[in-house]
Amino acid sequence: MISKEEISEILKGYDKKNITIATICSHSSLQIFHGARREGFKTLGICIGQPPRFYDAFPLAKPDKFICVESYKALLDYADDLVADSAIVIPHGSLVEYLGIERFESLAVPTFGNRRVLAWESDREMEREWMLKAGVNVPMRFEKADDIDRPVIVKYHGAKGGRGFFIAKTKEELQSKMSSQEKYTIQEFILGTRYYIHFFYSPIKPDGYRLSKGSLEMLGIDRRVESNADEIFRIGSMKELADAGIYPSFVVTGNLPLVLRESLLPRAFELGERVVETSLDLFGGMIGAFSLETIVTDELEFKVFEISARIVAGTNLYINGSPYSDFVEPGLSNGRRIAQEIKRANELDLLEEIVT
């Protein structure tokens, strides 16, 4: 991993009056570019081959310029070009998936947030350790198929957008579906409503919902639309579907907006607070946008089953604000909030606090 000292040296050569916001042309890039432009930044899109034509349809979110690479894995070869533009890279799910954690960690370009968080996020053993140390309620985990005594969901490691996840009701069903070629986690299947809560942690903001350092904001909530899983039971019972060889698929295809019962908001903030404070102890803090992926049971208990330690695609619902971010600032998106954090840090000469 590139050291913080090396990034600090690179930052010293930046034109602080002409910082450029850069990201890969995928995932949440439209709102990142749109938000950066609203805060007065230049923008740069990273793409494979020719610039994607769909940006022409969205002029307010089209990057000012593009860097076209042969493959995302070759992005490391373009670090000098990004540095020449005084670029700060915004990581998102596609960047992590396409570039890979090791290459991303060695990218010699200042990056928003703490790169160390991605190792904790992508490894389910480390992620579970994080959540348990934070004292949040997590689903029960099973080490092997013989231990199963209830329905479970199996998740393969890494950012896969739900691909490869499956449900099994018995150990026999689990063994028939399991791939031994990949690392996996077996969790109990929790019945309840899924809430993906979008938080933003600022280590430099002095007011708001205060933590031991900085403050925490809630900017929105979504629920994922997952391929056929949300509609599959319209055509038959689980047994009928299994007999026909049809099984739920959890590949994410879109997102739906949600709000919580207001009485649950204090508990939601407590979850976010615990996770951030623990991240400060474990690896120096999770900076910027993150999401807690939760299930709320019929007893109104939160179960946290995953952390996404970066901007998530569900925030694309709220380009012009959400029912929560509007109480922070009207029309505030996650993309714009990231740009505001960079702008404030730059003005206060605190960029080293929020980039690695």
From TrEMBL:
PROSITE patterns referenced in this protein's UniProt entry, alphabetically: ATP_GRASP (PS50975)
GO molecular function per UniProt: ATP binding; ligase activity, forming carbon-nitrogen bonds; magnesium ion binding
Keywords annotated in UniProt: ATP-binding, Ligase, Magnesium, Manganese, Metal-binding, Nucleotide-binding, Purine biosynthesis
UniProt pathway annotation: Purine metabolism; IMP biosynthesis via de novo pathway; 5-formamido-1-(5-phospho-D-ribosyl)imidazole-4-carboxamide from 5-amino-1-(5-phospho-D-ribosyl)imidazole-4-carboxamide (formate route): step 1/1
One Pfam family this sequence matches: DUF1246
Catalytic activity field: 5-amino-1-(5-phospho-beta-D-ribosyl)imidazole-4-carboxamide + formate + ATP = 5-formamido-1-(5-phospho-D-ribosyl)imidazole-4-carboxamide + ADP + phosphate
Residues the entry annotates as binding ATP: E226
Enzyme Commission code: 6.3.4.23
Cofactor: Mg(2+); Mn(2+)
UniProt binding sites for 5-amino-1-(5-phospho-beta-D-ribosyl)imidazole-4-carboxamide: H27, S94, N255
GO biological process terms on file: 'de novo' IMP biosynthetic process
Its biological purpose: Catalyzes the ATP- and formate-dependent formylation of 5-aminoimidazole-4-carboxamide-1-beta-d-ribofuranosyl 5'-monophosphate (AICAR) to 5-formaminoimidazole-4-carboxamide-1-beta-d-ribofuranosyl 5'-monophosphate (FAICAR) in the absence of folates.
Record family assignment: Belongs to the phosphohexose mutase family.
Protein name in UniProt: 5-formaminoimidazole-4-carboxamide-1-(beta)-D-ribofuranosyl 5'-monophosphate synthetase
